[in-house]
What does this fold into?
Amino acid sequence: MKNNELNDRRLQATPRGIGVMCNFYAEKAENATVWDVEGNEYIDFAAGIAVLNTGHRHPKVISAIEKQLHAFTHTAYQIVPYEGYVALAERLNERVPIDGPAKTAFFSTGAEAVENAVKIARAYTRRPGLITFGGGFHGRTFMTMALTGKVAPYKLGFGPFPGSVYHAQYPNALHGVSTAESLKSLERIFKADIAPDQVAAIILEPVQGEGGFNVAPADFMLVTMPKRYDQDPANKTIVDALKAQKKDPSGPYVWITYAAVQSLATALDRSGSKEPLALVKDLKAHGANTVIGPLNWDEKGDLKGFEFGVFKWHTDGSSSVAK
Ligand SMILES: Cc1ncc(COP(=O)(O)O)c(C=O)c1O
It folds into this structure.
């Protein structure tokens, strides 16, 4: 079977709305390598749009799937529950950077998770408003399309969308939007659109992808926001979580936010200051390192870069750093 033949079949059998980027068809994959149906070999930098941290066919993943297939395939957890769901929730609860008890619910897709987060935030706070950011991507369902801050191609022709959603400016040095300007745009929303006490949640990507691979500056994520929002008792848990010191998760997690939270939470405690410059000095003095490698900060306190390892997996599930 040739790539061209499969492409002709795809165009006949599936709608154009399912946009496809590559013109070759995967036949098999191993770790970071993919082979197409004609035997061509590719390095998979896409990794399922950056969700396949383990690489393809990680031995532990294969063995867990095999074990599950020999046990049962589907019971619908809400009808017949099983230990795996509870055990995974327990492991995640241990590792999230939240001080105090945590609980986890699982959903099938990212969009479904965001939809449910909105339901939980609205039901808990009894407030309707949602603030999100230009350039953000949150999914393809109606609420997540409303939250998404990019009209073309995600929202074109699909409105109207659910209401009470407002977009602030995401800080982005490349486009000349500073943290101060971003916060000004939030204040504009509070003045023109909705009172702060009517906002159920502020939803943002700490690292935007669709918006152009923007890393939110450290002072926006971890200094200015808590400073401004810790005055509202409703945000106490968030602020506490940022200050909480928890053990780094072990393993190959490329979780930039978590790493930044860890480093900055430590620096906040150590320096006793929330000023970006004081934090940067402290981080530099202590050579901040995280599970993903060294973090670099510029003189304004913005996260400039980070390094992470490429792991080679062994059949027993252990890993070593691959050069
Ligand atoms: C930040 C973010 N939120 C939500 C989604 C939606 O996830 P899904 O495609 O699984 O619905 C994505 C998908 O790329 C995403 O990057």
Remarks:
- The CA atoms of residues 134 and 149 lie 4 Å apart.
- The mean pLDDT is 77.
- The pocket of pyridoxal-5'-phosphate is lined by residues 49, 109-111, 114, 137-139, 205, 209 (CB under 6 Å).
